[in-house]
């Protein structure tokens, strides 16, 4: 197998644009790509930057209902035809000209990477434009039109992968991807997110475990609002590595929505850039430990488009390339100058929030007075026995 790393990028991905005032601003992608270029990440040995064509109907309908795809096409040609029954033309998912092509291109990028991993043409793949985890088979939801993560998993299964794990680290529950594989024993979905009691989409609790044909195939860890670095990292590491290792996937897919950050305007977690970097490094190691190194890393949410998203995903690309950026590294001056020109303000000058991003592992013991520990234990007790794991000790 090659050790090549493929990264999806092309300015055409900026076409996924819901409008000037929408939180899902395409400038977050442009700024990420610019920062990657300034750091030379796209030119590193073994890194291949690839574009993608829009996914065809066969790919899209492997996940989505044909009637929904037809509705997206119609709204894309004329936004006045958007139908709210399909989640289109809403405040979250307003229709815009070219919407079908823009959303399908994101799917094409993630699917191409997944196929390359299974074929042995690449070891790692990164599509920071992807991670559209709320899109469901029959409707758009939560800024997501087509579910590229689910389509990539389906494509990998079609290409010969037998088992795939999908880990979602976004602030929001990965409900759409979970729904696609709810009753599929070949796929394990794990979502660590802010509790649905305080955040959209209002789902993703410990007792949501999958369908009758795949009980335990969905795992959810719902964290209290305002959980910070130590709690978030403790939660991720108390659930994800154990389950992924037990499931023994052929490929590990991870979604790195950075709306967990304390500055994000939509979420209520208090995670730092440094903790997100630690989590990405952990997922990288886990891919090598449990999935033969095959790792598909996707973007996702993230709405602080200057201070957070570009730095977080540049760290992700650097991690995948095998040479992480040290936290204290200065942000390149040309990128900072571009931000000043475009936004009229300064961006952070270093690739860190200055946080230690340390945590205490679950082996230290359970604290019943800690809300994070209670959430972790609820998930472990619900899901671990279904995978042959001891919820109190493994």
TrEMBL record:
Domain Histone deacetylase: 22-318
GO MF, any single term: histone deacetylase activity
Pathway per the UniProt entry: Ketone degradation; acetoin degradation
One Pfam family of this chain: Hist_deacetyl
Keyword annotations of the record: Acetoin catabolism
GO BP annotations, alphabetical order: acetoin catabolic process; epigenetic regulation of gene expression
Mitochondrion found in the keyword field: no
Coiled-coil residue spans: none
InterPro entries: AcuC, HDACs, His_deacetylse_dom, His_deacetylse_dom_sf, Ureohydrolase_dom_sf
Record family assignment: Belongs to the histone deacetylase family.
Name of protein: Acetoin utilization protein AcuC
């Amino acid at each position: 197998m090659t050790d090549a790393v493929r990264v999806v990028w092309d300015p055409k991905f900026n076409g996924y644009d819901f409008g000037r005032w929408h939180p899902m601003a395409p400038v977050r992608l442009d700024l990420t790509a610019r920062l990657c270029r300034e750091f030379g990440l796209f030119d590193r040995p073994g890194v291949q930057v690839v574009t993608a064509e829009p996914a065809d109907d066969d790919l899209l309908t492997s996940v989505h209902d044909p009637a929904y795809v037809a509705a997206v096409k119609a709204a894309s040609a004329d936004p006045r035809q958007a139908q709210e029954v399909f989640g289109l033309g809403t405040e979250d998912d307003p229709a815009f000209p070219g919407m079908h092509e823009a959303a399908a291109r994101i799917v094409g990028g993630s699917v191409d990477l997944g196929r390359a991993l299974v074929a042995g043409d690449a070891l790692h793949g990164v599509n920071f434009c992807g991670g559209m985890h709320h899109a469901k088979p029959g409707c758009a939801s939560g800024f997501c039109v087509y579910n590229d993560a689910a389509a990539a998993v389906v494509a990998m299964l079609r290409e010969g992968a037998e088992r795939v794990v999908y880990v979602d680290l976004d602030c929001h529950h990965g409900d759409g991807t979970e729904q696609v594989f709810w009753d599929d024993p070949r796929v394990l979905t794990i979502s660590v997110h802010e509790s649905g009691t305080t955040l959209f989409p209002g789902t993703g609790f410990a007792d949501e475990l999958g369908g009758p044909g795949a009980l335990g195939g969905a795992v959810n860890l719902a964290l209290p609002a305002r959980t910070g670095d130590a709690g978030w990292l403790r939660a991720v590491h108390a659930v994800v590595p154990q389950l992924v290792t037990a499931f023994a996937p052929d490929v590990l897919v991870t979604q790195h929505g950075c709306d967990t950050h304390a500055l994000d305007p939509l979420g209520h977690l208090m995670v730092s850039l440094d903790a997100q970097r630690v989590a990405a490094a952990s997922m990288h190691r886990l891919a090598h430990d449990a999935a033969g190194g095959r790792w598909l890393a996707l973007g996702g949410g993230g709405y602080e488009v200057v201070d957070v998203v570009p730095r977080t995903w540049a760290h992700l690309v650097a991690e995948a390339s095998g040479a992480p950026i040290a936290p204290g590294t200065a942000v390149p001056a040309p990128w900072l100058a571009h931000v000043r020109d475009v936004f009229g303000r300064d961006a952070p000058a270093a690739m860190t929030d200055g946080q230690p991003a340390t945590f205490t592992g679950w082996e230290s013991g359970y604290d019943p007075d800690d809300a994070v520990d209670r959430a972790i234990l609820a998930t472990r007790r619900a899901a671990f026995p279904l995978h042959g794991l001891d919820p109190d000790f493994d």
